[in-house]
Amino acid sequence: MAYPTIYPTGTTIYDPDRCWNGYTVFQAKETGACIVDMNGATVQMWRGLHGFPNTLLPGGYVMGTTGQRDSRYGYQDHRDLVQVDWEGNIVWKFNEYQYIEDPGDEPQWMARFHHDFQREGSPVGYYVPGMEPRADGGNTLLLAHKNLYNKEITEKLLLDDVFLEVNWEGEIIWEWVCSEHFDELDFCEEARNTMYRIPNMRSCGGGMGDWMHINSMSLLGPNRFYDAGDKRFHPDNIIWSGRQTNIIAITEKESGKLVWILGPDYNRTPELRKLGWIIGQHHSHMIPRGLPGEGNILVFDNGGWAGYGAPNPGASRGFNNVMRDYSRVLEFDPVTLEIVWQCTPAELKLEKPVDYAKFYSPFISAAQRLPNGNTLITEGSDGRLIEVTRDHQVVWEYMSPYWGSNTNMNMVYRAYRVPYDWVPQLDPPEEVPVKPPEVSSFRVPGASPFGEKRVVKMEGVLSYDRIDSACVMPGDR
Q1: I need a labelling partner for 390 at 20 to 30 A (CA). Which of 17, 86, 420, 448 fits?
Q2: pLDDT surpasses 50 at 14
Q3: CA 50/CA 44 separation, integer angstroms
Q4: Is the pLDDT reported for residue 474 higher than 60?
């Protein structure tokens, strides 16, 4: 991917009349949990509270993480999942999943939390009319890690994914372990062979296979398919995304069985081939009731690299055997697999193939359906948030100004938009349109402006053009 060295940050595009206006919360890299208004002003920062993701609750509460485990012993493990109030006081915490005794560190309880959680009251982490997550009680569904062996998958130690449901008192009342359902996943023989040899190894703890790498998990919530009698889509069932395997699946809450699976092979049926390969995806979820597109699946299809299979010229060992160098946001029917709406480089009027990299985040990222039908897209790897209309107009763009201290990256894992009244501590801000400058004439102060019209004679052809005086080539007359 090619990035400019210098570019503006903050809000660069804003059409208040076409946006669904509110506050946006995201992780400001290493700084903390951040809320910005539509004009890009940072209106609240909880320093030291990290997000995987950060989620706002009604009343000005925010959820996030504290205490990341030493990377020598754990991969993306967070000690505490917490809820804090406006002043930063912790009002709820969960960490008692595993008692960890890492060398050189004090023994302590850890949640080993990663990537996603949902608070009772709403199936997803963003605003849904009529379904508010509880800020004063209720259960929490969360993703965590567990080290184990499963010889069907590999002889190596696995960094497995688990779903936990915990009550307000921090007691675990339900657990689901991904590797226990390996036989329900439709891996071909080549994929199983590759996974056995190379289960997406992480260097922590002497080496562990992050074989599935689940990165999102949410309830389905009430939906038209269950209302019509399809039991696979029970509101309590859980939809999740396995980034390394290109799998999106639904776990039946009552039995733990997988009742709906998309992937890992997108060539097996005409419907799958028409949908196209979903690669390294993030934030797969069902659009909740009360929002445009309710019942459809919304996913940020990253592209990049993922999968297990037969060796090929791009993956000589069969690991990360499928690749694509641009991203897509897909909304599709979970029964027919028909694409209902999408946002790809083509819809954004980017020219193939070179400009397709301008909409490309090979890791992290997300998509949220807004009440007016727009979609808030987190193009995470380059810290870009955009609100896109149904007809693919970018009506809001924000570039994160928060960089990491050790990396030249302003990446944003996932952003959520909420209504102003969820934050009663603040008065609703003034909404000022932001019209971007014409890129072709925009200059950094001090750079050469356009020159006057000149006559350029080339090989007997007389032509007139406006030429930047700093860019006249030798031999021009």
Answers
A1: 420
A2: yes
A3: 14
A4: no
